[in-house]
Amino acid sequence: MNHNVKVAGFGGQGVMMFGQILAYSATYDDINGLWFPSYGPETRGGTANCSVIVSDKQINSPTFKNADHLVAFNLPSLEKFRENVANNGLILYNASLIQDEVKEEGCIAVGVPVNEIAVELGNEKVANMVMMGAYLELTHIFTDKTIEAIIKKFLGERKAHLLDVNMQAIQKGKDFVKGLGIKYA
Fold first, then answer.
1. For residue 109, which of 78, 91, 165, 170 is within the disulfide window of CB 3.0 to 4.6 Å?
2. Are 13 and 73 in contact (CB under 8 A)?
3. Is residue 185 assigned to a domain?
4. Smallest Cα–Cα separation from 126: which of 66, 83, 167, 85?
């Protein structure tokens, strides 16, 4: 198993948290995980992306040419990285900010209105976890138990009260993808 994942969006959209959760989940499950962040000049509102590698083999380099999966939180990120998705890859995008249907030859593209779903939950900051749920439903890369354990650690005691809404957001993302009837993994 080897997954090269590019996660990209504006600073403040939870791009880095998304990537870290994937990498930490790998190590929690006793496989190799690597998270490599890249920031634009601003933290909030600037561009942000990260590369994540999840593998059952040794990871020799933090970079890769083509992503197996692209998670794009906004249009500039989609446009920047869409051509670097491997054949038979997955493009998961924020349909709240990317209105046009995305089509990329040789890839499956799935749009999820993560902002609207997060607002329905009463916390727009969990849009990244709605996207996480959609990603998990499509890839089946980690179990809910693993993700919940990592999010719990990630939030710590100070933000422990946010665990429930984050897990609800993940479930909403999973449910949305189930409703589409799309199978990827």
1. 91
2. yes
3. no
4. 167
Question: Range of 99's domain?
Answer: 2-180
CATH number (domain holding residue 145): 3.40.920.10
State whether residue 86 is helix, strand or coil.
strand
Return the axis-axis angle of helices 163-180 and 144-155, rounded to nearest 10°.
Answer: 150
Q: Token match 């590019």: residue? A: 6
Q: Are 10 and 49 in contact (CB under 8 A)?
A: no
pLDDT digits (tens, 9 = 90+) for 71-93: 999 999 999 999 999 999 999 99
Contact 128, 17 (CB under 8 A): yes
Reported as a single tens digit per residue, the pLDDT across 102-118 is 988 899 999 999 999 99
Q: Taking every pair of C-alpha atoms in the chain, what is the biggest distance, in angstroms? A: 45
Could you give the number of structural domains in the chain? 1
Q: Which residues contact 181 (CB under 8 A, 6 or more apart)?
A: none
Residues in the chain: 185
